[in-house]
């Protein structure tokens, strides 16, 4: 419910203050904030009049917004009060407007408490005329106490902030201390966007039930997409909307591409019917649901005209956000709705973002402050420029000489009429180590606004020979991922999504960075020497499904001794009677000694020559089970990722030989029969995917005993039975657990059975009664995501109880997302 989310968010904001008592006066330090929040929840549960919930929610949100502005301004006072830039310091909390807001908040809380108690009394008078005067008096005293606590708390906070402000503007020895908000801001990516975020969230969750478009307009690099992502991923937004969809439009859009992105984002809600058009499927999937659609990077009105009819208006508060550099596009789509125009950051915000980027939560040394302020001011308030220069500063020596060199260059480049941002990015590129430059330039070959899969990028980098392999203890792929992290740390590449273990899953280039990338590549004739990802080279080859005939494959493999990555698309994997169409790869596969990654479907051929080996092969998926014969596995001594399909069963599967693969990290098994096949998992496994395995829940200890297992995905009735009871000592390293399509009813476990679990995903678990209470006591749990076409109420309630218990333990990071398909 939205009111609980608002109160929980307010509680989190207040806890940020009370957990740093040294930063505030003794009055605030002594205030029992937890009791105040508990009493607000008690106020909500005190009566059964839902018409008051909206007022409580709105009041909590307004209080939180005022607190954020107060703390933000106070933190700037501390950081800038004795600096020559203190002329920029706003005096928000001293204004009459602010005092008026505080008085109004006090009146609102007081009025809500009294109204709810009066309504409760009226209702009980009609049902029970025998209520005693003493009971009524107790209720009135409770309301007075709640209202008084709210007002008293606000007054204490205001007084403490004003006292600290006066101390800060004096010659206090604590004048250079940082505030809580400064620390909080440095841990986020929304420096300078607080007001924008507040304005957009207010419009998203506003009272109007009609479908509304919220256009966000500004120049490239000013933070439009960052603002949208901040609001899109806000906990209030997640809980308020039933469906959220992110669409990147860009200049080379197509309607089919947009519809495909909608279909992909709605896959958990889509019920496709034969003969039904994709557009109709999207419309019906959104119909009746409160949705949020983000259309990012629009360059014309055509995309909107093409898809506007896909979005139903059910008068339920649905919203569409769009970002564009063109006001004409925004005005056309908004149809009278006001534009949200992005502003440049002021000098304080630029400084704060620069310090966050360079030092994190540490302080800047005094000898660098003046130079740092000069650099911040030279970036002209553009967040992208500040972030890129900050990434550059984080890589050079932290001394006045190095910083002065950067300051001199930035100052002259920004005022260049030929393109200041391009020149700033060029400066960052100039400081890129030579071994990273080819990696960076190669990324310019991907389409604009393209989400680059890191696994694909890493394979291409390795195939092009960019990795030097100087550290013999690391694979070339591991070295490539480290190079990507290095480039990301320099603010040249954006991280779009990370994996459960923190490694990058998808990345992208900002438009301006991509422009720089292409320009530098052309200057160096880079693309004449290296071919981008969407061309086939003899280092990397993708064969479309339309030509994947055996005889064509044989001709393509001629003289392919340098091939490292081979992907063969399958067109018709299944025949009309549900049996897989099996093809055997040609013998020429064994003549590719440099092959590292092979992704196909079919039978791997036995070598004609017994001495043939593929020592460099690391990825092999998806092949039939006969590859697990001892004489075959010996040919792949360094295999790390293996996918096996046992659906075409004609003789023994040899799955017991898997334990001989001492380098294996990832294993996917499909259609193996646990009752028929003897399976031995290697102890080195970190990721295991099981699908249609008929593995009894009672025998899951064979999986739980794997000492290094971090991710487990159980798909399509991987396990059978109604009860899963775990034991102590199992799953010692498991962080990610997915159960998809299962008849599991009872799950019996304790928190020490999954000591490191962070992510729990339940999909189509129709019969599961509840999530075990023991899961709720896992300290590091971050996400419980439940999606089901017929979501059991008891399952939802157990998830919410777990969230409440985690919050009581101080784990406010836990997200619980129950969704009905």
In order across it, which strands form the biggest sheet?
9-10-11-12-13-14-15-17-20-22-23-24
The overall average pLDDT, rounded, is 76
Shape: globular
What structural class results from the helix and strand content?
A: alpha/beta
Note the gap between the termini.
18 Å
Helix content: 40-55%
- Low-confidence runs of at least 5 consecutive residues: 24-49, 76-98, 126-188, 413-417, 533-537, 547-552
Number of helices: 28
Biggest beta sheet attributes = 12 strands, parallel
What is the rounded Rg? 30 Å
Multimeric state of these chains?
Answer: single chain
Number of strands: 24
Beta-strand share of residues = 5-15%
Describe the model.
The protein contains 28 helices and 24 strands. Helix 8 (194-204) packs across helix 9, helix 15 crosses helix 16 (366-378) and helix 21 crosses helix 22. The model is unreliable at 24-49, 76-98, 126-188, 413-417, 533-537 and 547-552 (pLDDT under 50). The two termini are 18 Å apart. By secondary structure, the chain is of the alpha/beta class. Helix 28 (793-808) links the parallel strand 23 (783-788) and strand 24.
Task: Record keyword descriptors for this entry.
821 residues; single chain; alpha/beta; five-stranded parallel sheet; 24 strands; 28 helices; globular; twelve-stranded parallel sheet
């Amino acid at each position: 419910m939205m009111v609980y989310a608002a109160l929980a968010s307010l509680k989190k904001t207040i806890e940020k203050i009370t957990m740093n008592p040294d930063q505030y006066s003794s009055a605030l330090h002594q205030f029992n904030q937890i009791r105040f929040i508990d009493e607000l929840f008690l106020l909500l549960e005190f009566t059964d009049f839902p018409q008051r919930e909206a007022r409580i929610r709105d009041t909590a949100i307004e209080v939180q917004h005022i607190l954020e502005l107060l703390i933000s301004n106070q933190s700037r006072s501390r950081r800038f009060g004795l600096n020559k830039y203190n002329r920029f310091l706003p005096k928000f909390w001293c204004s009459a407007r602010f005092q008026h807001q505080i008085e109004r908040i006090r009146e609102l809380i007081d009025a809500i408490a009294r109204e709810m108690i009066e309504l409760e009394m009226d209702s009980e008078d009609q049902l029970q005329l025998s209520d005693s005067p003493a009971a009524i008096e107790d209720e009135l005293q409770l309301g007075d106490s709640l209202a008084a606590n709210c007002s008293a708390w606000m007054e204490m906070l205001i007084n403490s902030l004003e006292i600290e402000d006066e101390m800060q503007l004096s010659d206090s020895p604590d004048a250079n201390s940082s505030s809580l908000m400064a620390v909080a801001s440095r841990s986020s990516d929304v420096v300078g966007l607080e007001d924008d975020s507040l304005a957009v969230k207010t419009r998203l969750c506003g009272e109007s039930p009609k479908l509304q478009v919220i256009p966000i307009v500004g120049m490239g690099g000013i933070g439009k997409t960052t603002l949208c992502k901040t609001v899109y991923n806000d906990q209030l937004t997640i809980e308020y909307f039933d469906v959220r969809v992110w669409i990147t439009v860009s200049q080379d859009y197509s309607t089919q591409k947009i519809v495909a992105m909608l279909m992909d984002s709605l896959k958990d809600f889509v019920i496709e019917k034969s003969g039904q058009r994709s557009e109709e499927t999207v419309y019906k999937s959104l119909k009746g649901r409160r949705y949020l659609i983000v259309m990012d990077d629009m360059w014309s009105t055509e995309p909107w005209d093409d898809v506007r009819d896909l979005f139903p208006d059910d008068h339920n508060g649905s919203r569409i956000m769009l970002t564009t550099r063109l006001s004409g596009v925004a005005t056309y789509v908004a149809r009278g709705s006001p534009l949200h125009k992005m502003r440049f950051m002021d000098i304080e915000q630029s400084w704060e973002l620069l310090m966050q980027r360079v030092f994190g939560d540490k302080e800047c040394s005094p000898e660098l402050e003046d130079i740092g302020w000069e650099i911040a001011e030279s970036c002209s308030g553009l967040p992208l420029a500040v972030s890129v220069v900050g990434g550059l500063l984080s890589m050079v020596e932290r001394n006045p000489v190095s910083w002065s060199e950067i300051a001199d260059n930035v100052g002259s480049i920004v005022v260049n009429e030929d393109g200041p941002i391009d020149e700033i990015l060029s400066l960052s590129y100039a400081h890129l180590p030579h071994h990273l430059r080819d990696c960076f330039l190669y990324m310019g070959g991907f389409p604009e606004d393209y989400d680059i899969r890191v696994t694909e990028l890493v394979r291409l980098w390795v195939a092009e020979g960019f990795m030097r392999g100087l550290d013999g203890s690391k694979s070339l792929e591991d070295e490539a991922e480290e190079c990507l992290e290095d480039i990301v740390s320099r603010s040249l590449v954006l991280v779009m999504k990370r994996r459960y273990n923190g490694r990058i899953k998808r990345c992208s280039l900002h438009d301006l960075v991509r422009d720089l990338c292409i320009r530098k590549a052309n200057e160096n004739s880079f693309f004449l020497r290296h071919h981008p990802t969407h061309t086939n080279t003899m280092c990397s080859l993708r064969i479309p499904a339309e030509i994947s005939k055996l005889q064509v494959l044989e001709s393509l493999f001629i003289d392919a001794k340098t091939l490292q990555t081979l992907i063969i698309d399958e067109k018709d994997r299944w025949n009309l009677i549900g049996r897989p169409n099996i093809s055997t790869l040609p013998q020429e596969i064994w003549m590719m000694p440099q092959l590292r990654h092979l992704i196909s479907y079919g039978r791997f051929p036995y070598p004609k020559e017994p001495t043939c080996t593929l020592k460099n092969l690391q990825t092999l998926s998806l092949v039939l089970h006969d590859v697990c014969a001892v004489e075959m596995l010996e040919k792949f001594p360094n295999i790390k990722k293996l996918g096996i399909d046992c659906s075409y069963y004609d003789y023994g599967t040899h799955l017991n030989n898997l334990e001989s693969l001492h380098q294996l990290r990832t294993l996917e098994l499909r259609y193996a029969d646990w009752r028929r096949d003897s399976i031995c998992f290697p102890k080195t496994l970190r990721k295991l995917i099981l699908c249609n395995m008929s593995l009894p829940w009672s025998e899951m200890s064979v999986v739980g005993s794997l000492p290094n297992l971090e991710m487990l995905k159980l798909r399509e009735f991987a396990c059978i039975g109604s009860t899963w009871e775990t034991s102590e000592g199992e799953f010692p390293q498991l962080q990610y657990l997915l159960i998809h399509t299962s008849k599991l009813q009872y799950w019996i476990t304790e928190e020490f059975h999954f000591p490191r679990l962070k992510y729990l995903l339940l999909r189509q678990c129709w019969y599961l009664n509840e999530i075990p209470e023991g899961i709720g006591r896992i300290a590091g749990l971050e996400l419980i995501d439940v999606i089901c076409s017929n979501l059991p109420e008891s399952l939802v309630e157990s998830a919410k109880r777990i969230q409440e218990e985690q919050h009581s333990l101080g784990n406010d990071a836990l997200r619980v997302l129950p969704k009905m398909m």
